[in-house]
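To the wet lab folks,

You asked to see what we're planning to order before we commit. Fair enough. Below is the target structure as tokens, and below that is the sequence we designed to fit it. If anything looks off to you, flag it before the synthesis order goes out.
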């Protein structure tokens, strides 16, 4: 048998000639299958080899997109650093300034640094080829979101406390009941004194401010009129105001009463005029402040040293309807 040009021949002893060997069907199928597999393997090797040194257009697009995404993630990371820095600054101002002024305790660090509940919410990113950068960004965004919610809640508490303090300051009796533009003088201070009628040393639960008849008497803080009328305890015509927060004030020996029980008063609003009714030796105002039922020295509350013009403006504003403010009209003396 001779192999000539990959063809198989054999010598026929009868004819003494070389004849071609004929393959069976199974052999032809086997050789065809091996040849096809060889071609497939060769094609795959050539493809991977080509793509390794010569990327396809699709690969080029993917690489450009990947580079763009990395750049975007880097930019986002820088922006997140800025947001985190601003949140830290806001947190410091909140704890050291806002809450400190309002006597609120700082928010505990354990609450401010609350986690997001583990890595389970990010399971969909675990199958990415490089999940590290994506996971880091999403985790930081969630952490910032939690901090924003906590800070928002803290600022809401600060706002509520500030509103309550503002109302407290407005209600607290803290100005002189007679304007500094009017002529008046103090005749009796808070504490023990010689009673002008019995001449015995007795406690005086307020201050006496003397002046001419008819001087306007102003509410020293926002509140509600408790009662008005003639007192059976020697105070003559008097007005009692409930300022809330445990504070009440009394304005006694009035000539006229210009308010009625249940009426809401603003600080500076006129409630009556100076007189000498009741147990009195001359025109004066008996002004008294109580805290939780106990008398206190009214002088301790005169922390707002208003000028005559400022007092006039305050009194004018107190008589305007709510929400109405006319600075030009009130600035005229």
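Sequence we intend to order:
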């Amino acid at each position: 048998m001779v192999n000539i040009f990959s063809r198989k021949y054999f010598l026929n002893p009868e004819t003494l000639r070389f004849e071609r060997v004929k393959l069976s069907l199974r052999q032809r199928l086997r050789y065809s299958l091996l040849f096809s597999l060889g071609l497939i393997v060769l094609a795959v090797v050539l493809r991977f080899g080509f793509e390794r040194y010569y990327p396809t257009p699709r690969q080029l697009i993917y690489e450009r997109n990947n580079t763009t995404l990395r750049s975007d993630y880097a930019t986002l990371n820088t922006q997140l650093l800025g947001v985190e820095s601003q949140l830290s600054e806001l947190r410091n101002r909140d704890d050291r300034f806002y809450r400190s002024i309002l006597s609120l305790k700082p928010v505990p660090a354990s609450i401010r640094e609350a986690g997001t509940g583990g890595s389970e919410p990010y399971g969909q990113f675990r199958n990415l080829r490089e999940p590290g950068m994506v996971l880091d960004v999403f985790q930081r965004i969630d952490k910032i979101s939690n901090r924003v919610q906590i800070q928002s809640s803290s600022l809401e508490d600060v706002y509520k406390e500030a509103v309550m303090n503002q109302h407290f300051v407005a209600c607290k009796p803290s100005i002189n009941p007679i304007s500094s533009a009017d002529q008046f003088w103090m005749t009796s201070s808070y504490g023990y004194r010689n009673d002008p009628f019995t001449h015995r040393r007795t406690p005086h639960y307020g201050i006496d401010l003397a002046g001419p008849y008819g001087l306007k008497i102003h509410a020293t803080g926002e509140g509600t009129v408790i009662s008005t009328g003639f007192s059976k305890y020697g105070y003559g015509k008097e007005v009692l105001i409930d300022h809330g927060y445990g504070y009440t004030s009394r304005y006694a020996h009035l000539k006229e009463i210009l308010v009625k029980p249940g009426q809401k008063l603003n600080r500076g609003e006129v409630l009556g005029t100076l007189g000498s009714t009741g147990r009195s030796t001359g025109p004066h105002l008996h002004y008294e402040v109580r805290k939780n039922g106990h008398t206190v020295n009214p002088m301790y509350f005169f922390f707002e040293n208003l000028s005559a013009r400022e007092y006039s403006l305050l009194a004018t504003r107190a008589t305007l309807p709510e929400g109405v403010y006319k600075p030009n009209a009130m600035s005229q003396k």
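Structural context that might help your review: The radius of gyration is 47 Å. The CA atoms of residues 249 and 289 lie 4 Å apart.

Thanks,
Computational group
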